[in-house]
């Protein structure tokens, strides 16, 4: 039973894989650091490779105390030099290399947030979060394998070759043949390991995302007493993962078995047998034979280190590629960082990337705020939607909105009504800057605006408010681009009629609200969203059934506050309960993506039409 990947955005490795290109670009931007630590570590690693020769000479200097003393000094000196250079590298790596992996993670996090809304809709958030975190872990593991696994033996091999060439040239040729043959054989054996590791990595991450989703929806699980359903689904997935892991384990065991045969049987047999054969016939000295055997023992230790790190490299490179390619298919995020103001994010451009990769940020990103737009002369006097059409990217031939046009001015309140699925929510997403229209325009003061400017001009109160697992104060203050003044937060909460309730909480405004705000009722979460709207100084207020979860008494008090919120601003109100539209100036009725009626409440009720029909049904309690 295999666990099947269901993410449509998953990419196979190949032309779209830019993961290692991104790492190479990262290294290139700090090549001086990497060259320095590589050269020093290589020298440190080469020094112990001389020890087999020193030991052999020492062993044959029994009757020559002065000569033995020189080789003892050389053993000690090279050991101390190795220790000093290795420690220098350790400190340098800790201070100058390791921080780059966090900056790579920061760049990945920034790049994900610079993507458009559709990308977030298409991918499980738990898997995206897991992969962003994994990038740093796996890139660190790749560095460890290259730096602590491959580099030491690559530095030692030239020394071994030199020593053997001076003492036993035949053995040097045996090592050369072995290295070539072992590289070919291990590459062939590692192929299935790599393929199965990729498959296991993808399915493991998919299961991880689903586990996250399962626990994130614990309210639904408990509400429907569906624990057994979640357990059964997870058991099914784990059965597939177990089979995947067993197959991977078999291929990995084969890799280690072949590695052992190569070194323990073939190389040891060849070097020991050939060395004795040469010594027995006088072709090499006893010292040369000792050098050959000690080099063999030292090389074996290095070989196992390389084999281990090669296996780690296969594992971590597969995991790194899977995570990177899932997040950024076909893209090098180091050389192609987020463009300026993409999805409302200022972005990182190439000239400033080096500074971004070295020093921590000392200030917040410059936001696109109403104040910033005001400095450019862009204050909202009127918003116009002109001939707007929209189709979702995955259904380009089906228009969800078709030739929608309307205007709303400062101080004007516009209500939008219609049955579920008629296009109201899609229109709001466009006004929030989540999507670009397929055709048509959104204009502010007669000029077209992009998603970033449009998003900066509005405050949004959704029907279903999801909060951060932070304090009440943090969640209300989230409306501000920087740190919000606690007094302004309290004032906004008071206007939203929730300050008194917050004061009754164990830690007041510093009370944690739980995951997605679970410790608060839906009505309380809505009032926090309304408090955010009061806090943000915006020219456009969008309310999507903002009082739907409130009781009648509280709703009446909130309506009074909303009148204050609307004062001097343009307001767009999405309503299912038509009674909430008593204070609006104009009403749009949307049906099948088109505006079929518009006017004030009295005019619409005075004529037969969709609005009058909806009003009658609600008055009679049928809707």
Essential attributes:
single chain, 623 residues, alpha/beta, ABC transporter transmembrane region fold, Rossmann fold, 3 domains, six-stranded mixed beta sheet, four-stranded antiparallel beta sheet, 10 strands, 60% helix, 9% strand, elongated, disordered N terminus
Care to describe what's here?
The protein has 21 helices and ten strands. It is α/β, with parallel strands linked by helices. The strands form two sheets. A six-stranded mixed beta sheet has the order 6-7-8-3-9-10, sandwiched between helices. Strands 2-1-4-5 form a four-stranded antiparallel beta sheet, covered by helices on one side. Helix 3 (51-59) packs antiparallel against helix 10, helix 6 (125-167) packs antiparallel against helix 10 and helix 7 runs antiparallel to helix 9. The two termini are 48 Å apart.
Task: Kindly summarize this structure in a few lines.
This protein has 623 residues and is an alpha/beta fold. It is 60% helix and 9% strand. α7 (169-216) runs antiparallel to α9 (227-280) and α7 (169-216) packs parallel to α10 (286-327).
The count of DSSP E runs of length 2 or more, i.e. the number of strands, is 10
End-to-end separation: 48 Å
The shape is elongated
Backbone CA Rg: 34 Å
Name of the CATH architecture of the largest domain: Up-down Bundle
Strand content: 5-15%
- Main pleated sheet: 6 strands, mixed
Secondary-structure map:
Blueprint: H1 19-29, H2 31-46, H3 51-59, H4 65-113, H5 117-122, H6 125-167, H7 169-216, H8 218-223, H9 227-280, H10 286-327, H11 353-358, H12 370-375, E1 382-390, E2 401-409, E3 413-417, H13 424-431, E4 439-444, E5 447-448, H14 451-456, E6 458-461, H15 472-477, H16 486-495, H17 499-504, H18 522-535, E7 540-544, H19 552-566, E8 570-574, E9 586-591, E10 594-599, H20 601-605, H21 610-619
Helix pairs in contact: 2-4, 2-6, 3-4, 3-10, 4-6, 6-7, 6-10, 7-9, 7-10, 9-10, 16-18
């Amino acid at each position: 039973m295999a666990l099947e990947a269901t993410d449509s955005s998953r990419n196979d490795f190949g032309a779209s894989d830019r993961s290692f290109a991104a790492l190479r670009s990262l290294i290139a931007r700090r090549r001086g650091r990497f060259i320095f630590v590589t050269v020093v570590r290589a020298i440190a690693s080469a020094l112990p490779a001389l020890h087999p020769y020193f030991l052999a000479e020492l062993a044959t200097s029994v009757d020559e105390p002065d000569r033995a003393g020189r080789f003892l000094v050389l053993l000690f000196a090279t050991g101390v030099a190795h220790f000093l250079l290795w420690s220098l590298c350790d400190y340098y790596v800790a201070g100058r290399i390791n921080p780059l992996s966090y900056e790579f993670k920061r760049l990945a996090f920034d790049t994900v947030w610079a993507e458009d809304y559709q990308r977030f809709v298409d991918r499980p958030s738990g898997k995206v979060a897991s992969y962003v975190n994994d990038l740093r872990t796996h890139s660190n593991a790749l560095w460890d394998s290259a730096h602590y696994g491959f580099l030491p033996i690559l530095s030692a091999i030239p020394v071994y070759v030199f020593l053997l060439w001076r003492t036993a040239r035949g053995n040097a040729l045996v090592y050369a043949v072995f290295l070539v043959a072992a590289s070919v054989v291990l590459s062939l054996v590692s192929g299935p390991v790599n393929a199965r590791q990729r498959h296991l990595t993808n399915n493991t991450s998919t299961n991880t995302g689903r586990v996250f989703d399962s626990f994130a929806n614990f309210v639904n699980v408990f509400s429907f007493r569906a624990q057994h359903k979640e357990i059964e689904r997870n058991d099914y997935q784990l059965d597939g993962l177990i089979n995947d892991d067993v197959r991977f384990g078999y291929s990995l065991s084969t890799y280690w078995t072949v590695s052992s045969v190569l070194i323990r049987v073939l190389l040891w047999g060849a070097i020991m047998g050939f060395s004795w054969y040469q010594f027995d016939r006088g072709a090499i000295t006893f010292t040369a034979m000792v050098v050959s055997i000690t080099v063999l023992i030292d090389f074996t230790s290095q070989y196992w280190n390389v084999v281990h790190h090669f296996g780690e490299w296969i594992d971590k490179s597969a995991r790194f590629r899977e995570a990177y390619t899932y997040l950024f298919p076909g893209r090098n995020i180091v050389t192609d960082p987020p463009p300026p103001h993409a999805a409302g994010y200022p972005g990182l451009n190439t000239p400033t990337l080096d500074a971004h990769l070295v020093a921590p940020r000392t200030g917040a990103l410059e936001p696109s705020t109403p104040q910033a737009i005001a400095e450019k002369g862009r204050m909202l006097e009127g918003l116009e939607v002109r001939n707007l059409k929209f189709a979702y990217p995955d259904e380009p031939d089906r228009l969800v909105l078709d030739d929608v046009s309307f205007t709303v001015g400062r101080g004007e309140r516009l209500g939008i009504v219609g049955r579920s699925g008629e296009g109201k929510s899609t229109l709001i997403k466009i006004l929030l800057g989540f999507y670009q229209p397929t055709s048509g325009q959104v204009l502010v003061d007669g000029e077209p605006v992009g998603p970033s400017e449009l998003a900066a001009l509005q405050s949004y109160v959704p029907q279903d408010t999801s909060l951060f697992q932070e304090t009440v104060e943090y969640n209300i203050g989230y409306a501000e681009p920087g740190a919000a003044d606690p007094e302004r937060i309290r004032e906004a909460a008071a206007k939203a009629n929730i300050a008194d309730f917050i004061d009754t909480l164990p830690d007041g405004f510093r009370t944690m609200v739980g995951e997605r705000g679970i410790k608060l009722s839906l009505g309380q979460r809505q009032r926090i969203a309304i408090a955010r709207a009061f806090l943000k100084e915006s020219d456009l207020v969008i309310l999507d059934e903002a009082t739907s979860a409130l009781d009648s008494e509280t709703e009446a008090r909130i309506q009074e506050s909303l009148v204050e919120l609307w004062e001097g601003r343009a307001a767009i109100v999405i309503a299912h309960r038509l009674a909430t539209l008593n204070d609006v100036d104009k009403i749009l009725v949307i049906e099948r993506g088109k505006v079929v009626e518009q006017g004030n409440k009295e005019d619409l009720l005075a004529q037969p039409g969709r609005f009058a029909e909806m009003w009658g049904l609600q008055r009679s309690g049928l809707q």
